[in-house]
Amino acid sequence: MNTLYPLKFKPLFLDKIWGGQKIKNVLGQNVGDIPNCGEAWVLSGVNGHQTIVSEGFLEGNELNELAEIYMGDLLGDQVYEKYGTEFPILVKILDTNDYLSIQVHPDDELAMKRHAGNGKTEMWYIIQADDEAELITGFKTKINKQEYLTHLNNKTLKSVLNIEKVKAGEVYYTPAGRVHALGPGMLLAEIQQTSDITYRIYDWDRIDHRGILRELHTDQAIDAIDFTVEEDYKTHYSLKENGTTSVVKSPFFNTGIINISKSIRKDYSELDSFIIHTCVSGAYDLGWDQGTIHVKTGDCVLIPNELNIVLLNPKPMAQILEVYIA
Quick check: 324 and 271 in contact, CB under 8 A? Predict the structure, then answer.
């Protein structure tokens, strides 16, 4: 069997009612004839939406096929034991040209009960933000279910939600159960559990291309919502120069930011997990004992568990989201 190597995949591009042109114009991705590309799924094991290896001897293979063949060598033994052959992390690049629906995702327990699937905890890293770009995350006011339904029926829900003005480099961790909505003017990376379960709460009375209001999931959402009010919804961190800064530690994924202006060596031998690199600024060459690949902003690379040592050579600088399962 040939030795595993850092894997790049062909992104899946999705047309969205709220999407824009940044994935094409800012990241230089070939989105084809999609008019409003809202999402690029750059690493996905979601059934029906699996990404396919784009180069090397494994070119043409779907992500979950590789998990089935290589098991712990690709995923890590503990990851394979827990998740089997469904790759547990989904990585997307989003371009929000308009508000997404106000929505919530179920946790693992509720998702398993209702859909026999995973819940959806996620995080966002803001790659680029226009002036006045904003997002909704959580409640700013303590309310109960009945007050929530009153606001929903009166179309005043936004008045009790927490709105954040955002800028490039910011991180927002969004656990399952937290009501949220991305606003217009952002290009961002989304790291999440492998799940496509979304309960749409309010969609700004938008109609789709057929002239129909998009479906809402009011009854399903109410039992999924966590009404807790947090003091601060932003994830704060201080970047290390030419090192890795831990920003998110959760049961579902850990994320660090590698910030480099000179070459560094990463030793992953202590981890029993795959590593995902998503370049969010600049570019770099990723080297290992068998070769080198070039990685630019918007690219995603899956580093197999069995590959312990990689060299990162910035061109001339890079910031990289480093994701694994602890």
Answer: yes
Beta-carbon-side half-sphere exposure of residue 165 (alpha carbons within 13 Å): 3
Beta-bridge partner residues of 13:
40
Q: What is the DSSP code string of 62-120? A: BHHHHHHHHTHHHH-HHHHHHHTTS-SEEEEEEEESSPPPEEE---HHHHHHHHSS---
Residue-level pLDDT at 2: 75
CA 205 vs CA 102, 155, 159, 201: distances in Å: 11, 10, 16, 11
Whole-angstrom distance between the N-terminal and C-terminal Cα of the chain? Answer: 28
- Rg, C-alpha atoms of the chain: 20
The DSSP bridge partners found for residue 164 are 135
In three-state secondary structure terms, 122 is strand
Share of residues in the chain with pLDDT > 90 (%): 98
Catalytically active residues, by annotation: 200
Q: Is the pLDDT of residue 1 over 70?
A: no
Per the CB < 8 A criterion, the answer to whether 149 and 157 are in contact is no
Question: Domains, the chain, ranges and CATH?
Answer: 7-222 (2.60.120.10), 243-324 (2.60.120.10)
Residue 127: per-residue pLDDT: 98
Rounded Cα distance, 104 and 123, in Å? 13
Q: 168 by DSSP, 3-state: which? A: coil
Tell me how far apart the alpha carbons of residues 136 and 181 are, in angstroms, rounded to a whole number.
Answer: 5
**Pairing state between β 12-20 and 37-43:** antiparallel
User: Each residue of 173-226: pLDDT tens digit?
Assistant: 999 999 999 999 999 999 999 999 999 999 999 988 899 999 999 999 999 999
Average per-residue pLDDT for the chain: 97
pLDDT digits (tens, 9 = 90+) for 66-101: 999 999 999 999 999 999 999 999 999 999 999 999
